[in-house]
Amino acid sequence: MHLVPTQDEVIALLRETGALREGHFRYPSGLHSNQYLQVPLAMRYYQHQRTLSVGLSRLVRANPEIRAIIPELSIVTPATAGLPVAYGVCEALRAHQVYWAEKNNEGEPLRFRQFLEQVPGEKVLIVDDILRTGKKLMELKNLLVANGAEVIALAVVVYQPNPETPSFDPLPFYYLAKLEGCCFGDEKSCQLCKEGIPIQEVWI
Known about the structure:
Number of helices: 7
Strand order of the largest sheet: 5-4-3-6-7-8
Helix content: 25-40%
Order of helices and strands: HEEHHHEHEEEHEEEHE
Shape: globular
CATH architecture: 3-Layer(aba) Sandwich
């Protein structure tokens, strides 16, 4: 394994742990796909969590502007899947702190814990396990900016965009692996449905 794991090494690790599966899946968004990815299935093993988090931290640290502010850097993530990544990256970088945004119920906006006060101009690195639709990460970014933080970069373990994934430009964006999984839309446009391949519902 390289100091920064290669694309092939990350994919092999995800397959070995069952975090990456091939088949016919329907996501909560209604999109059908031939791939299912749940990074927490890999992150449950300490050694794999460390490999992925440290590798991601090395990509971030290579940016000299970020490296210069690490002692004051906050690592922020959406709960809950991003938490192992956030703590691993924070530990590897020796950054200032970790905190997260969460929802009490679906349909409600993201929010931070009570009494968590952000300092105006606070430097923030957003991390997560995966960037797929980008909706939650964009909501988190907007929440941070509205609270006076300065988001300096975005880092995820896996980048798996679909046709609706937004761009986070001009933020520096780091990832260990990119998956080009096929999204087939709904039942009418899904080639796997047309072939009669059994479908499996997935939660995330």
